[in-house]
Structure formats: structure tokens, C-alpha cells
Amino acid sequence: MRHESTRRPGGLSGWASRVIRVCLLGLAVAASFGVSAALTAKPPAPPDYAVIHRFGHGEGWAPHVGLVQDKHGNLYGATRNSRGDWHAINQQGCGLIYRIAPDGTESTVFDFSNQKAMRGCGISELLLLDGALYGGAGGGKYGYGVLWRLSFNGHYQVLHHFTQDEPWGTSGLVTGTDGALYGTSSSGGTSRGPNGETYGTVFRLGTDGVLSVLYNFRHDDPLGVRPRNALTLGPDGLLYGTADDGAGSGTVFRVEANGQLTLVHTFHYDEGLWVSGLTLGKDGKLYGAAFEGGDFGMGTLWRVSTDGQFELLHSFNGHDGWGPNTPPTQAPDGTWYGTTLGDPSAPFTANSTLYRARLDGSQAAVMHAFAKKENDGRSPWGRLLVGRDGGIYGVTMGTITDKYQGVGTGTVFRQAP
Q1: Nearest to 226, CA basis, from 236, 204, 241
Q2: CA angle at residue 99 from 97 to 102, to 5 degrees?
Q3: What pTM does this model have?
Q4: Which of 104, 227, 304, 376 is surrounded by the most beta carbons within 10 Å?
Q5: Measured between alpha carbons, how far apart are the two ends of the chain, in Å?
Q6: Distance between CA atoms of residues 303 and 287, nearest Å
Q7: Residue 70 has pLDDT above 80, yes or no
Q8: Rounded-to-integer distance, Cα 400 and Cα 409, Å
């Protein structure tokens, strides 16, 4: 008997065709699972620490103030110089305000070397208010500095030109409960020392544009001299600040509702030398840092209540950092973050850290050691910022490969909490 062939004309046999169909079906199913997995897979987690921008040629360099962030996620900061050109060392400009977009793109918002800014060198800490940036700088009509407002599109407006008997520049601005802007200056004012030197002021710029000097520091002032940090709004609606005491230890003072100043605390060496500004904690107390002093002479973390009850929280020992030069920043979960500048004799490449501390400051864990890898940042400066994404953002004034030690192009970095 002759068997009929199951092979189709010009095709495969029946069993071979079935095998191929099964294989193709399996591949299709596997592919569908692969596509589904690709669509549902979580994106890779960002690195714990990352440099998100490194300033280079043609950009500003040496970012020196803490960052602020708008509702769209853009970061804003300031550089000490306008041009990142090492060969134009005498033509570095007066600094600029820059923006870092969420994708890491950097752009200049305003260059203070612009003639309109009247050589406004020395940009202060930035205040984000009503969809614009506020701050102070040197220069101006009389050469003693200005207060300014800058829109995000680069429109620059001078709010006040300081005169000889007024503050000479400012460390930064804060808004009071009355809507006015308050600030400090480390020099200027009407009080003069034995050789004609000045010791700084506390001032108010009203919503009507009128500037009032609330206090002129004196050379022998028990409240301190030369306040170098912006004021902080306390839990009682009053403003608090820090000043030097003439010997480095420093003070904490309060600006009363009538504009007078009251001493809150005077530091001793074991509590800290060269104190930072203040941060209001969730517990209603004021937190700060000191660059030197403490158990090991390498700086401290501390807090003080509005009635002057002082607590030393942590003494840095070198392993966890050396020389915190800005106040710590508190995250929504209560954790504190800050940076230390490092060993001054290194210069500032050893023991420079980004740390995390508990609410009571009793433990400081190192999250990142600066200046240990090629192109990493060196000399962290300015307050840290807790971003809208929960990340910790900050700046360094230089990078490890800079030609000039301790000062240079600089970086913007992000640390995962």
C-alpha cells in the first residue's frame, strides 16, 4: 500500500510544522512577559552620592552659598566669580546667579559683572520669596552694597543702595512676621572703633522700601560683633542671630518686637568657636554648629532654646569630620544633615565630610568623604537643602583636580537620604 505523504507541496511535513508553531508561540509568550517586565520594572535607584554639575570653562566658579529650589524643581545658587577661566585670574568678574534644571542643565540667570549691577561682588545667601530671588551684594551707587530682587527670567531690580553710615552689604535676608525683610551686616553702621573700624548692624527693609538700622554693634559689645550669618525666624515669631564676641567664641542674640537686641547665649571654647548661623528645629529649639572648639578642637553641634538653655550635642573628632562651617539642615523625618570643611592644614581635603546626625546630635555618621576621588568636590560651602525629591543638595567651592587649592570651579552634588 502506498502511504500518502503529509508534506504540503513546497512546505514542511505536518509534525515539523506543528513543532515550529509551538516554538513560535513560546517565543511570543516569552516576549510578552519580557515587554511586561520592562514596562513594570522600577528605574535604577540613583547613586547615594553624585555630582550633578561640575562648573567649567566659561561658567561661574566657586559656588559659595546654599541652594534654593522653586516649585518646578530648578535649583538656584550663586558663585563667587563669574568666569571659569584660570588664565584670566584678574578678570574673574563678580559672581553670578545660576540655575540647575532637573535634567542637570546649568544656565546663568544674572551676571553681577553686568554694568547694571554696578560691580555687585560678594553675593549673599539667597532668599526665595514670592516667585523671585532676594539677596545682597557689594558695589552699588555708593560702593557700600545693595539689596536686590531677581526674577527667574533674569530681571534685576535694586531695592536699596547702602550709604556710608548704613550696613555695608549683608549676609542674607529673611522675612519677618510683618512681611519686611531683615538682615545683618558684618561691617558698616554708625558705631566706630578706636581706629575708625565698624562692627556691623541689624537692619530692616520695610514693604514701603524704607531701610531702618535696628542696631549698631560696638567694639566692646556684650551682644557680640560682626554678625556674619543671616537671621532665623524663631518659634515665637522673633528673629534670632549669631555674632562673634571679638575673641572668636560668639553669641546668640534675639531681635525683640521693638527692634532692640537681647543676649540669649555667650559661647565658651568647650562649646565652640566661630559659630554658624541658626536653624529652627522641629522641637522649637535653635540648632547650629561651630567651626572649632569642643572636646577635640574640631568643632561642635549644639542647640539652644529661646530662653537661653544651651546643650552641646556633638564634638567632631576628625573621623566624622573637622570644622563645620554652616548650620545643619533638618529633613522632614527629623534627621540632621551638614558638612564639615576639613583640616585647615590639608588644605581642606582631609576630614571633609557630609554627615548625618540624630535629633539629639549624639551620633554623627559620615555619608560622604569629600576630595577622595578624581573630580569630586572639595571645600563644601553653604547650607544643605532638602530637595523636593527628598535628596540632600549642596555645593563645593572647588574640585579635587583644581589648579588652585581650596578654590576652583566647584560642584553641585546630591546625596540620597
Answers
A1: 241
A2: 165
A3: 0.85
A4: 227
A5: 82
A6: 4
A7: yes
A8: 10
CB 64 within 8 A of CB 78: yes
Reduced to 3 states (helix: H, G, I; strand: E, B; else coil), residue 36 is: helix
Cα–Cα distance measured from residue 297 to residue 318, given in angstroms and rounded to the nearest whole number: 10
Cell of 359: 535629633
Three-state SS at 319? coil
The Cα–Cα gap between 410 and 60 comes to: 9
Q: What is the pLDDT of residues 347-372, one digit of tens each?
A: 667 789 999 998 765 678 899 999 88
Of the candidates 171, 291, 316, the residue with the CA atom closest to the CA atom of residue 231? 171
Those residues with Cβ within 8 angstroms of residue 65's Cβ, 6 or more apart along the chain or in another chain? 77, 78, 123, 124, 125, 126, 172, 381, 382, 395
**Residue 270: predicted pLDDT:** 93
CA 366 to CA 363: how far, in whole Å?
10
CA distance 274 to 294: 12
